[in-house]
C-alpha cells in the first residue's frame, strides 16, 4: 500500500510539474504584478540598495520596486535569476517549484490527519485547481507563503501526534519563513497558536488538572512559535542589513508597509475583499462577490499571436478582445480564476467538516477548519482592496475538506461516484486550462469561458 501511495503522489506531482512548466516563458514579458516582484528580484540579484527604499524612483517606466512585502520569496527568485538569467524562466521557475510542492504537501497533511484515501482525493483536487495553477506560474509570493504554511501545519501535526520537541521547532522555523515571505504568514502563526491552545484545553478538561494545561515548562516551549518567526523575519532582511541600512530605516520601512496595507483609496477593476467587489476602493460602493463563490477573478494578461504587428495587447480587456479580431489572430489570456466546481463543491465539503467537528470535537477537523478560515475571514475587515488570489492559502484546506468528504462517500455504496466527481473536477480544469495558462485561442471563443457575468 505504501509503495502504491508513493507512486501515486510521485506521478501526480510530475504531471502537475509538467503542466506548470509548459510554455512557462509565455508571455515573454512582465505581466500583472511581475512589474513589481520580478523587477525587485532582479534588483536583489544585483544588490541594488534602492529596492528596499519606499521612496526610490521606479527602475523603468511601468514598474516599481516591491518594498511592500518581506524579502524572502524575492530573494529566492533573485537566486533563480542569478542562475538562469533575467528572463521569464529565471523569474518564474521558483513559483513553479513551490506551486507544484503544494500538491505533495497537501497529500502529506491529509494523510497524517485522515489517512490514505482522503490524502489521494485531496491531492488530486488541489492538483487540478485552476487558481493554484495560475499562481504557480507567475512571479509573485503567494505560493511561497502557502507552501511554508503547509509545512508548518505538517510539523504541528507531527508534534501533536508524536510529542517531540524538534517538530515544534521546525514548525516555528517554517512559520518564520511564511511571515518573511508575506505578512499573511502571521495568520499561520495565529492558527497554530489557536490549535495548540485548543489541544491543551482539551487535555485540561479531560484530566482536570491545571498543570496539564499550562505546565511550567510548556509556556517557554510554545513561545517559540513567536520568538523564532521574529528572528527569521529579521534575518530575512540580511541583504538590507549588509547594505548598511540602519535600525531606524528598518522601522520606517515596516511603518510604510503598515501604512500602505491600511489604505482606503486604492482602486482596481478586479479589486475585492473577501465578500465584496470594491473596484473604487473599500470606502466606495460595494457589490456582493465573495471569494468562496469564485465570483470575481483577476485578469492577468492578454497576449496577441499572429497579429500583423506581433505586439502584446496586455491593456485590452476581456470584454473588447473579440471586437478587433482579424484573420489568423490568436490570443493568450491568463485569468486568475478558481476551478468553479471545486470552489462550489468545497463550500459543501467545509460544511461537512464543520458538522463533523461539532459532532465529534476531533482536533483533526479543528485544524483543517482553522487553516481554511484563518486565511480569508480576516480579509472581510480589510481596510484596502484585495484580489481573489489572496484566498490561495485556504485552498489546500478546501481540498482536504473535499478529500475528507469524498473519502466518506467512498466508504458507502456510492464509492464509484467519487471517481466520477474527481473526473469532472479534472475535466473542468482542462476546460479552463487555455485561460489559466495563456494558451493561444480564437478571441471569439472567450465568451464560452465566462460562466458568470461577474467574471468579465
TrEMBL record:
Ranges annotated as spanning the membrane: 96-128, 140-160, 166-199, 211-235, 333-353, 365-382, 388-409, 416-433
Q: Which domain of life is it from?
A: Bacteria
Q: Under the GO molecular function aspect, what terms does this record hold?
A: dolichyl-phosphate-mannose-protein mannosyltransferase activity
| EC code | 2.4.1.-
Write down the membrane topology.
Multi-pass membrane protein
Q: Which InterPro entries match?
A: ArnT-like_N, PMT-like, PMT_4TMC
The record's subcellular locations are: Cell membrane; Endomembrane system
Q: Name one GO cellular component term.
A: plasma membrane
| Record's keyword terms, sorted | Cell membrane, Glycosyltransferase, Membrane, Transferase, Transmembrane, Transmembrane helix
Domain named ArnT-like N-terminal is located at: 11-235
Specify the enzyme's EC class, one word.
transferase
Q: What is its main location?
A: membrane
The protein's matches in Pfam families, at most eight in alphabetical order, are given as:
PMT, PMT_4TMC
Q: Which residues form the Protein O-mannosyl-transferase C-terminal four TM domain?
A: 248-455
Q: In which pathway does it act?
A: Protein modification; protein glycosylation
What is the recorded function of this protein according to its Swiss-Prot or TrEMBL entry? Protein O-mannosyltransferase that catalyzes the transfer of a single mannose residue from a polyprenol phospho-mannosyl lipidic donor to the hydroxyl group of selected serine and threonine residues in acceptor proteins.
Give the UniProt family note. Answer: Belongs to the glycosyltransferase 39 family.
The protein's name: Polyprenol-phosphate-mannose--protein mannosyltransferase
